[in-house]
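FAQ
Q: What does a multi-component entry look like?
A: The components come first, one per line:
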Amino acid sequence: MPEKSHRHVTCENCLSRQNSLFKSFCDEDVEGLDSKKSCSYYKKNQPLFLEGSTPRGVFCLNSGKVKIFARGEEGKEQIIHLSAGGEIVGFRAMFSGEPYKVSATTLEECNICFISKSDFLDMVDTNVTLRNGIMKELSTELADRATFITNMAQKSVRERLAFSLILLQDVYKDEMINLTREDLANFVGTATETLIRLLKDFKEEKLIQTHARKIEILSKEGLLKVSGA
Amino acid sequence: MPEKSHRHVTCENCLSRQNSLFKSFCDEDVEGLDSKKSCSYYKKNQPLFLEGSTPRGVFCLNSGKVKIFARGEEGKEQIIHLSAGGEIVGFRAMFSGEPYKVSATTLEECNICFISKSDFLDMVDTNVTLRNGIMKELSTELADRATFITNMAQKSVRERLAFSLILLQDVYKDEMINLTREDLANFVGTATETLIRLLKDFKEEKLIQTHARKIEILSKEGLLKVSGA
DNA sequence: CGAGCGATTGAAAAGACTCAACCACCGTGG
DNA sequence: CCACGGTGGTTGAGTCTTTTCAATCGCTCG
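Then the predicted structure of the entire assembly, as tokens:
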């Protein structure tokens, strides 16, 4: 379970809120939000929620990154999405009326706020802008996943890796991509060994450089070309 | 473009409405719906909309089946979803504010009603039940696609085919699955030749039987076992 | 210092794809 | 009525990608 927050964040000052679904909140709404949320500190590799459990609310990422994944038959993880600061995690489950179909786990130390299901649904009911933002978000993600499925079905592992690195760079912004080889493989949808061999190829082709586990992209254009996109 | 309807359907009597998002409509709402919709007959293989074009409204399937697909780099189709009677097609694009990311084409003769974007959005704004139904639908599909991605990434083609046949049987209800081998391959995410070979294997294993192109499932349990689900 | 995890490499096997050819069926036009 | 062309279905052979299994290495942590 999450430990006590080592730094309390107020929604008003929350930098991550600027690029979240709450960005359009007026001062009054922000105050209400602030009074309802609880703020927690998460260590690396702590779960926010697990597949099969009952959704109780949403998680608002202040800092840190979280992986969203499903498990296949043999328990192998398939990473569906990586969330970074400002994203609200787990809101789909607020509407489905079903247990979580995916799990969420921190990849780094995180500060994450929690808003209960009833508080969240109240906000959605009363705040049209929030609601429209959510419907838009749901629709956009649905389209993204159609593309994801198509890539998975039609692209080679090499192409998918190139494309994934580009996507991940967007998540990591100005930092370097920093994932275990296994997580990266589970995002690309391949075996860890295959992933490592392809990373080596990319290094030899001067597309990337590795610093221990961190990956630096040297040629986004080159990767785009490889990805066939 | 669609031809004139050969059979005008009123929403009130529409059997498909019973299992659609409009099922909870009161008489008054149904009347409003009926006055706004236009009804069209579609021949086999006619497009409802194409990837990249601008969404103008939603399509309500009275009868017939429609495939929703994306195209990969080399133009190969990836079928994301098959819609049957009662389903509303294309409503995600009403909220995303972007051009279609997928295409939709009839697989058989269809009777399909059209509701303009503004009329549809008006209904969503004013009808809470409809809105909640839509949010639930969006959330459920998002979860379904996470499973789809996981299957695509981790299962063999043989496993995916077994699983796909079970899914398709639900779409085709008491009828036999009736798709071109190519469409089936594009749903499973494989090459047509591979698909045909696997169908042959399944026939030899007494899991299915084919009647020309139609596929009859002899052992759902057997397929489930093969699918590893 | 030893255990253990994550990263890496090698070799062999399996799965799937591509290419090429052929067949079967169907509707058309001569 | 029949030859023709086209589409969809099927089969075979060869190739390539990717996986699997096994082993090694480096590093951190207790």
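Q: Is there any commentary attached?
A: Sometimes. For this entry: The first strand of chain B starts at residue 3 and ends at 4.
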